[in-house]
Amino acid sequence: MKIVIIGSGLAGLSAGYRLCKSDEVIIFEKDPDIGGMSASYSIENEGKKYFIEKYYHHIFRSDSELLALIKELGLEKQMLWLKGKNAYFVDGKNYPMNTPVEILHFSPLSILDLAKLGMLVLRIKLIKDTAPYDRIKAKEWILDTAGKSVYENFFAPLMKSKFGDNAENVSAAWVIGRVKIRSDRGAEGEKLGYMRGGFNSLIEALVGEITANGGEIRTDREVTEIVIKDSAVQGVKVNGDFIPCDAVISTAEPAVLDAITGGKLGDLHETLKSIRYQGTACALIGLDRSLMEDGNYWLNIKADVPFGAVIEHTNFLPFDDYGENLVYVTSYFQDRKSPLWTQKDTDVIDSYLKGLEKMFPKFSRKDVRWTRLYRRMDTAPVYEQGYLGKVLPFAAGPSGLYLAGMFSSSNYPERSMNGSVKAGFQSVELLRKEKEKTGYDEK
């Protein structure tokens, strides 16, 4: 079979990797770089070249499909499991949030409130099925379960930084999923996974396997139409050219999928229009000195600054791997009218640097070596109340059209690199089942 895959993120590459030994695979990527949200910068520092993700990433021990893929590709020796120190910046002060003892010193909450927070986390750990919580708003559930102070002084700022004006519409299922994925920690805190040399090694290994087996990956090629006739995929149009194929796996976000199928997906058409995505403006800054001298990796923020989190990569990975301090500053936005989307890169960076100056008195722009800004409109779905009913199926309806991505069930109720790998694999499993029914010959 000849199979077109739309998008070279982890879902698309994972699907291509699974298919390339048995089928003819062509991956079209609209951007100049391969990798989607997992793409990396190539940085030169004093004659040394290294790769660093455009958007920060780490993985968890529960990411079984991703870890199995890394092992399958012979990259397991590059895996590191390191302690990532977390803190919460509130009213001008950093509060470490790694161990039970540190959390007990989080003074914005009373002892009673901290007990309620602890009971909430314990309750979340015991929840096996998040589906019943999908139609409950997170705000209402937290207020009912842990009280006003826990919501307003702990959860509300985090949800606001993550979802902006949509924060109060987010479901309890998302909060439960988010806490569960981040609550695997021992007495000394949480250990997170990262690949030495960056996840670019994973992307390159997947690309290498696909191309070595005859697959193609074409960048700067945007699919403008999935051609459907008589309820079956005929091919795709790319830069004005028609490319015939037997099947398409699309990882494009819902609004784009709706556009390139011309609203021909029947009942899915309305669902695609109703799923809201949000954007990200993620800055990466190279510095002469450490920003968070207390060793924090991840800093959540409750402050009047234009970003919601600061992540100091070199407080997590060894400084010697890079030879300079690397800091991510990131914010989400909800629509194309946001200044984070409309402003020039230099203006967004300037607003972020002003925020850092406000938060860190020792920070100086003289310490800044370089900056990069990565912006996308399709970073992630907004996991609103009732979102479970909008999760897209792996089979879209027309024969030969399959879907995989952040909108897939494997990325509910919270997206992850593992969820995208799993989505790519699951779309292939379904395609192969259909292939057996129709009796296509092997490549």
From TrEMBL:
SUPFAM superfamilies: FAD/NAD(P)-binding domain
Gene3D superfamilies: FAD/NAD(P)-binding domain
Residue span, Amine oxidase domain: 10-428
Pfam family, one: Amino_oxidase
Top-level taxon in the UniProt lineage: Archaea
GO molecular function, one term: oxidoreductase activity
Name this polypeptide is given: Amine oxidase domain-containing protein
Organism: Methanosarcina mazei (Methanosarcina frisia)
